[in-house]
């Protein structure tokens, strides 16, 4: 017996010596808290990263070009107001359940019932399961960008949610757990600190062996901490919110710079319900006083890369209705004083509250720039620092919303409807995207025309009219059209953020972890 035991031990030892051991690859990145895991409530950048990796959608943006391609859907047909999608039959949720039409129905009805996040995209949309692999959407009103909106309908595992929750929609469960079919599953989630995800073994598409095995998405790291961690090889991709000089320093130290051409802009949003900004002349005075040229200089990384380009109006260049690049916005103090003279309020009595998001230190500099500009008009201002979570809570009521809020907003489907409707339509106030609380009949009319136009020419005309109206009433100071810049270690390759032929026309989609590679 002793001899057999020695032989067995020798075999085990030989096996241990000769069998290669592969280290788990870990991708570490950060974003601003909070990370909202419930896909029906996802609306900002951190939420989008989680949603695009844990859940799948019927369609995806075409990589490297315009339009959309099938994903969970195998194909679709359009007949007037009816959109019929044939689903793939080989998609499984991370629970092992097979994805079917009933899950698509549940996901849409859940989003509509909760009325949170981007649910407004699906107002007036009815749905039915024709069979296990066929689903039909029927629109009560024409909605030109409907297919594009489906990139924001993540499909939830109905059976898994209901088996783990006492409620119909499983809000508590989905706030802490994933129930998707995505390439990555949730291992742990703290919306203020970190979400840990791991690569799925059963994803219906191939995922490269070099894609990260584990992803650690951290929230709310200080800029100095991120710089140190990347320099020490303990962090891989910084958020887009680092101050330019930190990004510059990391690049000089050998970090690569990843970019995402935006479908949005950086805005200084004015609460149109609060005096003195309930007077359009006062808003126009502030918008003409703002030093756009200096703001753009403040976001330059180097001679070749910047976090933005000059705004030409209310709609970013490249979208329906945008003004041309020769219409760059510039400070005009003479016009600012003319509008201020027409304002019903006395400048001596004004004290404008200008806020900045605590997790985005660059915004403090913009606040100081605005304060300096307003001083030239004889207007006092007060700068206030707000954590993101507190800001999002405050803007739920007009009276608690600051005079001026600084925000980056993007077209969450890549279509201008999802940039502008949620900001400006009178039916969508009280979200972080709409602290203007704008209520303007002409704006509503143009937004609705942009949704319902039968062709691109009609949409272009609608958004041109919208652009003109927004510039006329100035609910917002249009700081600059944004491009996101991320400093990254050389341990990770991200083609979707470094190669234009692999880029998506949708912010956040470049962070699909299955398309990344970890290298040593």
Strands of the biggest beta sheet: in what spatial order?
1-10-9-8
Provide the CATH superfamily of the largest domain: Periplasmic binding protein-like II
Estimate the mean pLDDT confidence: 92
- Helix and strand content put the structural class at alpha+beta
The gyration radius over C-alpha positions equals 25 Å
Flag low-confidence runs.
Answer: 1-21
Beta content: 15-25%
The CATH topology label of the largest domain is D-Maltodextrin-Binding Protein, domain 2
Form type: globular
The largest β sheet comes out as:
4 strands, mixed
What's the count of strands?
A: 18
> Helical proportion?
25-40%
Query: What is the CATH C-level name of the largest domain?
Result: Alpha Beta
Tally of contiguous helical segments: 16
- Span of the ends, CA to CA: 46 Å
The quaternary organization reads as: single chain
CATH architecture of the largest domain: 3-Layer(aba) Sandwich
Number of domains: 2
Please explain how this structure is put together.
By secondary structure, the protein is an alpha+beta fold. The chain has two domains: 232 residues, D-Maltodextrin-Binding Protein, domain 2 (3-Layer(aba) Sandwich); 225 residues, Roll (Dipeptide-binding Protein, domain 3), CATH 3.10.105. The protein is 30% helix and 22% strand. It is built from 16 helices and 18 strands. The strands form six sheets. Strands 1-10-9-8 form a four-stranded mixed β-sheet, covered by helices on one side. A hairpin with a 6-residue loop joins strand 2 and strand 3. Helix 9 runs antiparallel to helix 11, helix 14 packs antiparallel against helix 15 and helix 15 runs antiparallel to helix 16. The longest helix has 18 residues. The two termini are 46 Å apart. The relative contact order is 0.15. The N terminus is likely disordered.
């Amino acid at each position: 017996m002793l001899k057999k035991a020695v032989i067995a031990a020798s075999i085990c030892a030989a096996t241990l010596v000769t069998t290669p051991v592969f280290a788990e690859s870990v991708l570490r990145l950060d974003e601003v808290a909070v990370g909202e895991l419930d896909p029906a409530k996802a609306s900002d950048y951190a939420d989008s990263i989680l949603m695009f990796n844990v859940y799948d959608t019927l369609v995806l943006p075409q990589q490297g070009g315009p339009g959309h391609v099938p994903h969970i859907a195998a194909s679709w047909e359009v007949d007037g107001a009816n959109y019929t999608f044939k689903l793939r039959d080989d998609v499984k949720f991370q629970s092992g359940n097979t994805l079917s039409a009933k899950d698509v129905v549940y996901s849409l009805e859940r989003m509509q019932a909760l009325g949170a996040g981007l649910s407004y995209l699906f107002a007036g949309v009815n749905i039915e399961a024709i069979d296990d692999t066929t689903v039909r959407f029927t629109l009560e009103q024409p909605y030109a960008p409907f297919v594009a909106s489906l990139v924001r309908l993540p499909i939830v595992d109905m059976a898994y949610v209901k088996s783990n929750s006492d409620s119909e929609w499983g809000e508590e469960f989905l706030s802490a757990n994933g129930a998707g079919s995505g390439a990555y599953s949730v291992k742990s989630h703290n919306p203020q600190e970190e979400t840990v995800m791991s690569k799925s073994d059963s994803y219906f598409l191939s995922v490269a062996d070099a894609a990260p095995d584990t992803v650690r998405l951290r929230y709310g790291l200080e800029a100095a901490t991120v710089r140190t961690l990347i320099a020490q090889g303990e962090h891989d991709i910084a958020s887009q919110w680092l101050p330019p000089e930190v990004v510059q320093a990391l690049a000089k130290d050998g970090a690569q710079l990843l970019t995402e051409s935006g479908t949005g802009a950086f805005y200084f949003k004015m609460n149109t319900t609060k005096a003195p900004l309930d007077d359009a002349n006062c808003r126009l005075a502030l918008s003409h006083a703002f030093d756009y040229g200096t703001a753009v200089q403040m976001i330059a990384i180097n001679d070749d890369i910047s976090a933005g380009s000059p705004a030409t109006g209310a709609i970013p260049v490249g979208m329906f209705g945008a003004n041309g690049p020769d219409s760059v916005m510039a400070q005009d103090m003479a016009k600012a004083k003319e509008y201020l003279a027409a304002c019903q309020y006395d400048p001596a009595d004004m004290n404008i509250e200008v806020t900045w998001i605590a997790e985005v230190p660059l915004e403090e500099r913009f606040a100081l720039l605005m304060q300096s500009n307003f001083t030239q008009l004889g207007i006092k201002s007060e700068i206030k620092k707000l954590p993101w979570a507190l800001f999002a809570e405050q803007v739920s009521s007009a009276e608690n919303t600051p005079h001026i809020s600084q925000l980056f907003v993007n077209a969450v489907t890549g279509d201008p409807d999802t940039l502008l409707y949620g900001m400006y339509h009178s039916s969508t106030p009280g979200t972080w995207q709409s602290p203007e609380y704008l209520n303007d009949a002409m704006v509503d009319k143009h937004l609705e025309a942009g949704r319902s136009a039968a062709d691109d020419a009609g949409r272009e005309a609608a958004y041109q009219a919208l652009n003109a109206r927004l510039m006329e009433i100035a609910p917002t100071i249009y700081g600059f059209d944004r491009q996101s810049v991320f400093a990254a270690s050389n341990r990770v390759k991200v083609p979707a953020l470094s190669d234009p032929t692999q880029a998506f026309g949708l912010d956040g989609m470049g962070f699909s972890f299955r398309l990344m590679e970890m290298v040593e």
